[in-house]
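P.,

For your records, the input lines for the assembly:
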Amino acid sequence: MAEVVILSVVIKIGVALGKEAVKQASLQFQQFDTQLTELQGRMGRIRMELRLMHGFLCGVDIRNRRNQTYEIWVQELRMLAHEIEDIMDEYLYFVGHKHGTGWRTYLKKGCKQPNVLISLNKIASMVMEAETNLGHLFLVKSRWVSVVDGGNSSNSSDIVERSQHLASSSRSLGEEDLVGVDEDREQLETWLRGMHLDCSVVIVLHGMGGLGKTALAANVYMKEREKFDCHAWVFVSQTYSTKDVLKRLITELYKESEDTPGDITNLEIDGLQNILITFIADKKYLIILDDVWTPKAFDEFSRLIRNGKNSRLIITTREGDVAARGTPDRMLTLKDLPEDKAWDLFCKTTFASYADHECPKDLKPLSEEIVLRCKGLPLAIVSVGSLLRVREKTVEEWRRINDQLGWELINNPMLGDVRNVLHLSYIYLPTQLKSCFLYCSLFSEGYLFGRNMLARLWTAEGFIEERGASTFEQVAEGYMKELVQRNMLQLVQRNSFGRMKMFRMHDILRELAIDLCRNDLFGVTYDEDKCAGSLDKDGRRLVVQKLKKDIERSISSVHQLRSITVLDKSMPSLTLLHLLCEMSTYMTVLELSGLPIVNIPYAIGNLFNLRHLGLRRSKVKMLPKSVEKLSNLLTLDLSRSDIDELPGGIVKLKKLRHLFAQKVKYLNGRFLLSSSGVRIRSGLGNLTNLQTLQSLEAQDESVRKLRELRQLRSLRLFNVKGVYHEPLCESLVEMHFLSKLHVIASDENEVLLLNALPPNLQKLNLTGKLDIDSFQAVGRNLYSLRLNLSQLIEDPLPSISLLSNLTELFLDGAYNGEKLVFLAEWFPNLKTLQLRDLHNLKQLDIQEGAMVTLEKLSLVNLDSITEIPPGIKFLMTLRYLGFHEITQGFLTLLRECVRNGGMRQFWYTPRA
Ligand SMILES: *[C@@H]1O[C@H](CO)[C@@H](O)[C@H](O)[C@H]1NC(C)=O
Ligand SMILES: *[C@@H]1O[C@H](CO)[C@@H](O)[C@H](O)[C@H]1NC(C)=O
Ligand SMILES: *[C@@H]1O[C@H](CO)[C@@H](O)[C@H](O)[C@H]1NC(C)=O
Ligand SMILES: *[C@@H]1O[C@H](CO)[C@@H](O)[C@H](O)[C@H]1NC(C)=O
Ligand SMILES: *[C@@H]1O[C@H](CO)[C@@H](O)[C@H](O)[C@H]1NC(C)=O
Ligand SMILES: *[C@@H]1O[C@H](CO)[C@@H](O)[C@H](O)[C@H]1NC(C)=O
Ligand SMILES: *[C@@H]1O[C@H](CO)[C@@H](O)[C@H](O)[C@H]1NC(C)=O
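Structure tokens returned:
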């Protein structure tokens, strides 16, 4: 299964033969035109052969995949492909650098002052050798590897084509995808909600892998967690360490609180336990411990957190002896689906687009056989169903899949039923999706992927192909959709207007993928606790989950590394960056967010291949001038670091698409300048590929140059003064793609006068004083509006209510008046409403028929309100009602109301 590697090399050669590299090369090697032409010709031929190989590998029938001769041949091919990748990177480095001072790798021993011709000849001879070897492999194939004919074996273009068709005829995914668990879910929700229980309760979810325990728990967690004072979701897994689990619990629980736990990195178990117990002592919490394997772990954690008021602890486990520790009347045992339910689920998934999801008559016998093979496991059924959904609905096709499933079961008995089904689903993925899928498995179990972040990483890794006029980000989102539809990634959360937001990988799929990664040398996960992850000599990607020692001593060969992601935030990081800059010259992705890195070595400029540099939440104060040499950089992430100004050369990075740089000055500050953006002195207009600019400090020059950034999708602008309004608005109306905008005034008294806004805006944040006329410029497509510190004198609701597509509205310190009225028929799509810090507000009037879809209402720090708004009773769809930072008087009022039985369920926090 080397197709993933082969494809990435094909793409790499494509870059080396692309317009940009060809132009650079002909400048660089002006005098050696013939040699260059010959070299490029060879590279073209290698690419063609690799593409044919790729096509062949995709078409190989699954039954060959375990043949030893074939496997050895594929291994050789993969090694050669990696060699070619190295040569191509070296070539790209060479053509991209004027003086050819490179040659650290291949010429170290030889001449001290390489001249251009020698270098060119060296590359040429390596390419020639690679071509010869490739030709030899082709010959060997026909001699030794005879492939079992899979009949009308589907080739990859075929699969891709059908997937695209599938993506375009997308169906909506949602809660209903949890099939056959309705009763379990209701039961679980009842246990969570039961307000009559004053004590805390441990709930156990038990069942084998693939039954959907985690999916069920996650579904309920997302829905119910807001109703608790604090909440945490922590994966325990087979090889947990107590310390680690405690740390993650503390971090999660504190996430939405106003306090911080202080520095917990070096605390021992006792200290951690104390923090945890103190924090939850008087709180109502919801904690999920997912995938607990040992009774010891059960005892340890449930003892620790059993206190608390009316709290809930959910434990999921595959192990019977763990489940036995719970109380029987608070235990859900998930079972495999009975035949009829299994059949329903299969039909619903496979024939999603058919009337009544009915299975055609001729496919019925084979379908029944296939369902039988899934042993009633929802995960297996949904997987095979999702696979069949994109296949041709013919008896031949069905027979083939059924045969292959049977073959897998017999030949890979160690994989077990579910994994065999899943393996088949994997094999049928188009190659690009395979890369994306394998990549996700390198992250820790249960890792939550955000859509934008994942799109940026996939793009930087080179998995995303260009498709017509679509941007990489759009194509990536299409891939996510496909992976979700094929059940290879789970969709965990959508945003308020229905767009996919968070994903997670199923643990069984992840286990399978990790094996595949290892076989393919695609990447490894390094986890000290699991003693796994000696980085192979040829490893390309490394995700560090846990590492106590310095990385230098743990990883012998970093030279070939293309991508490193550090998830262990306590890893000693002093020499990491220096080491990588010196040794890993081909590095493409550096994701080091959360590490306390202060200095960026000058040598970072050597990483000519670098496409992603993630330093979010670091301590970086400034970047060295050499970053201007990172000409391939797509993403630079310095969000929430300590940076004020970027070096002037930053504007030379013409490919840059996402620039995050924001300094947080005061955590939890409720005032205007609790954060600031970065300054870019001049030349901002050259960054024409920018899609994200968060955050820029407005200055004369930068505001005028904004109009050049036509590709912007998301913009956050600090320090906006009156004199900038006119040039700013002129720029904004030109930004046709801009969908998210956040403007922050320069101080509390500066009035934001934006009389023109981008036409296709979806989310708008305005922080600073406003004029009531400001809303006239807002487009009607707006989904989300957040007004902060606007201090409006006049009631803004009549104007805002014209934005009938709004799904979220936040008014923080936005209005100084005494009365707000929500009239009938206003805000028909609103799901979330928050009113905060409206200090003069005495009366909140919600009329019947207003906000008919509202799900979440938060009233925070409204200290002049002296009655519970009676209109709340009209909000029929409300799922969450919160009164926060309330006065003693208001609390008394609430209690009274409860006593009279006139109050629905609500949540509150008293003022600190
Ligand atoms: C593997 O394939 C070779 C040639 O195609 C064949 O001779 C050999 O029997 C196969 N081995 C197994 C274990 O199937
Ligand atoms: C291949 O497809 C053709 C037409 O689609 C069909 O007639 C033939 O039987 C198929 N062969 C196999 C081995 O499935
Ligand atoms: C792959 O399938 C496509 C579409 O069915 C077809 O046009 C193409 O010729 C096939 N390629 C190979 C190598 O079989
Ligand atoms: C910006 O682009 C212009 C025109 O392409 C060029 O003349 C100028 O040197 C560039 N500035 C920088 C800092 O790269
Ligand atoms: C308003 O700004 C404060 C401080 O930056 C922030 O905590 C709060 O979330 C903002 N409110 C909204 C609605 O964005
Ligand atoms: C608007 O504010 C919210 C909450 O503070 C934040 O999450 C979001 O990123 C902001 N939007 C933009 C475009 O900055
Ligand atoms: C709401 O949004 C849709 C498209 O998303 C748009 O066609 C419609 O005009 C909007 N509604 C209003 C009242 O503007």
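Two observations worth noting. The pocket of 2-acetamido-2-deoxy-beta-D-glucopyranose (ligand 7) is lined by residues 780-781, 804-805 (CB under 6 Å). The two ends are 59 Å apart (CA to CA).

Regards
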